[in-house]
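Hey, resending since the last one bounced:
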Amino acid sequence: MASAITSWCEENLSCSICLDVFNNPVTTACGHNFCRTCITKFWDEQVQYKCPVCNKLFNTRPDLQVNTFLSELAAQIRTSVRVKEQLFVEQAEVPCDVCTGTQLKAVKSCLVCFTSYCQTHLEPHQRVARLQKHRLVEPMDRLEDRMCKKHDRLLELFCQTDQVCVCQFCTEGDHRSHPVVPLMEEYEVKTTQLGKIEAEVPQMIQERKQKIKEITDTVELSSKDADREIAIGGQVFTALIGCVEKCRDEFNQTVQEKLKSTEKQADDLIKELEQEIEDLTNRSSEVKQLSHTEDHLHFLQAFRSLKDPPPTRDWTTVEVRPPSYVGTLRRSLDQLEETLNMEMKKLREAELKRVQQYEVDVTLDPDTAASSLILSEDGKQVHDRGVVKILPDNPKRFTRKIYVLTRQSFSSGRFYFEVQVKDKTSWYLGVARESINRIALTEVTPETGYWTLDCDKDWMVFRDDPDVRLPLRAELQKVGVFVDYDEGLLSFYDVEARVHIYSATGCTFSGPLYPFLCPGRHHYDGNNTAPLIISPVNQTD
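The structure tokens again:
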């Protein structure tokens, strides 16, 4: 009901000129009410004095009488409107701490009272002299958090040493020797930093999106590679299965033919024996019949006509030997092995061609070379001259063994390089960790950080614990070294023969990995003066 009355009053206590609630209302002789300022200004602009509502003319400018009742009523209405116009607190805004029930939005916060006020409750701070001295700021929430817990003073300074907000008293205590600046000054610095961060974030986001694309592309490429490998493998295995089946069929056919040949021989001999038995049976009957004749004349005449015995074979030396299958299966497997070797050769050639795509350009690092080694100017060749040079101390240099590393190192991915070993009788090569001991006489094994192929005129081994003995390759001229860092794979190849020599799997690579060379002593066997040469890769179709 009160709300309806207020609404009615606002509509009926409005000046017909400014259309607002009366301000200092006055009444004309015709009984209409206006704001004193509005009617005065209206008549100042007119030639005749008339009422703006009923247009009644006045001969002279009327004397205006204050309408006390309307004045008081309008004042109450304006106060009600002001309260109503104050916004109620919304999310993320500071509420008035004094309001009870529905809280209005605070317009100021007092740093002395630690209280936030709406427009109505702020009035005492604007009127009372003592309260006018309080420090008012824009509305702040959680005012207690803006005060120093130790000194109960406003945090208005920033300690650049401890990177914390402090009060004035803090600068006289724990932060006495620390550089401090006003919050605004540090705010501007941090805002600038934030601006840089804000500018960097989109770039970082873009970089990560690019990385996602790279990973996605890699997965897609890997999928295509896998499909291609499966297709190639399927063709190879299909061919091998076909070859195995062909060898099996040929083997079965050979065995069957041998069996048939034996069976035919046996059948022929049996037929011959049966014919002889028949002939001998007939002769036996004739002899038996003649033996029962007692007529001497008839016997003698018949005996003369007795047929000669049929020709017979001496069967004591005749026998049927079971067919021999010795070597039959071996010859079939030899044929299969030949086919497998041909397929393996194709695969090795394809494998070498594939790893050669990861060729890297590496050069030897003179700072790591033992003092008796001589490096070419281009860093591609190394040999031992047997004379120790006086060189500056260098923690990277090998001092007890004639080793040398490359300048380049690798901490991920795949890489491949080739080293010419032609005319050498002794050499090491492979890869080594950066952290290897370059002073002590340590064993060359994966455990100590080396993965190397060691060749001598009489043997070849992969250095491990224990060593892995490998077939000596007399015509070995160039060795290819392939490393898949992430997969822990190291492989060696005979480049000229395009043959895989050895692969170490499950290697634990950590930190930078360097290609590693050791040319062997120059005086070894009197014939080891040729250099090890890092050669460019010559990929062949």
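Residues 183-291 form the longest helix (109 residues).

Sorry for the duplicate.
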